[in-house]
Specification:
The protein has about 80 residues and is of the alpha+beta class. The chain has one domain: 3-Layer(aba) Sandwich (GIY-YIG endonuclease). It has a three-stranded antiparallel sheet with strand order 2-1-3, sandwiched between helices. A hairpin with a 5-residue loop joins β1 and β2. The N and C termini lie far apart (about 25 Å).
Length: about 80
């Protein structure tokens, strides 16, 4: 089963990066206020980028790479 690395844009234009096995469910969780503390009061959120990888270790590695990018680079990745 695939893993996904995703970036969502919050209503205040902040970006959040995470990983999941079920992208649609995870975005719904963020929008319902149960995704995480960071997005709880920043709803609605919008999925702006996702990547699919084969394993959780690969997903964690890529998530760390994306989280270490400056905002400008993240915006370039989003397109």
């Amino acid at each position: 089963m695939s893993w996904y690395i995703y970036i969502i844009r919050c209503k205040d234009n902040r970006l959040y990066t995470g990983i999941t096995k079920d992208l649609e469910r995870r975005v719904k969780e963020h929008n319902s206020g149960y995704g995480c503390r960071f997005t709880k009061y920043r709803t609605p959120v919008q999925l702006v980028h996702s990547e699919e990888v084969i394993s959780r270790p690969e997903a964690l590695k890529r998530e760390l790479e994306i989280k270490s990018l400056r905002r400008v680079k993240k915006l370039e990745l989003i397109g």
